Amino acid sequence: MKFNKHIIPLSLAALFTCTGPTWGADAPAVPQPFGPAISAFGPAGTGFPVGKLGVLLNYQYCETDGVRKGGSEVSEAVKLSKNVGVVKLRYGITEGLDIRTATPIYDVYKKNNVNGERNHLGWIGDTAIALHKVLMNQAKGAPFDLAVDVGLVVPTTDVSNKSVDFVGNGAWGTGGAIGLTYSTGSHRIDQEVHVYTFTEGAHDYRKPMYVRSTTAWGYAINNYFDMGAESQFDWNDQSEKNGKSQKDSKNEWYAGPKVAFKYRPAGFAAGLAAMFPMARWFEANTPSEGFRIELKLSKTFDLF
């Protein structure tokens, strides 16, 4: 497994930029599970405490298992190994309203099995910023937590011959999300759906509109450890190059088990998930991931 030398230092720097106490030392009477472990920018249904800053890191490692078209493998001409980090910030503005950002940092190792050519691609992608508003609160008598996002993608990428247009090409984007969270006893279910669309960016490339649906179930074994399962479905429309459709739409569904550790007095939590393909379909020849290993680290700081 290859780790890009830039990802770990930047991730640690992001996690320890601020200082201060967090969730509070009092554990709830019934153990409560951590939220989704996989990388999902959408809201689910819960909010964020007022005056607190959350710093999160999602890390994903995956390898392709061949080039696929339709639902079948067509060749093994290209192999990709991906290290993708997403640095996220969350801040509680007022009760039921917070702001969230997400910036991808990535490294892709590409090997052409036909001619032996090898390349490293990547660095930093475009940043998403969203306002997150809670509409229903289960703790206040609602049947579940319900929230919505309104978001904007801003050009923060370093466009070069090493950047990956699909992750970031200096384009603007806009979108939104809706999320639902239901808790009962030590169980928690999260469901969120978000959709984004983009302008044309560098290299005359327009990223496809996409819809992502994330489902997560967590069970708190005790105040420190959780178990559960998560699922993520992505629908991507066709991208455009020089104003022409590339006929490269795709659908991917991954799911698998997760575990989590949380320590509330320090405001720290960590989740680990192993995701495997349940269904895949590609309009064009596309390298496809045979598995995804996902890690999430979360630290909350009290600014006031």
Automatic annotation (TrEMBL):
What is any Pfam family matched here? Phenol_MetA_deg
Signal peptide bounds: 1-24
Keywords recorded for this protein, A-Z? Signal
Q: What InterPro entries does this protein map onto?
A: FApF
The protein's name is Transporter
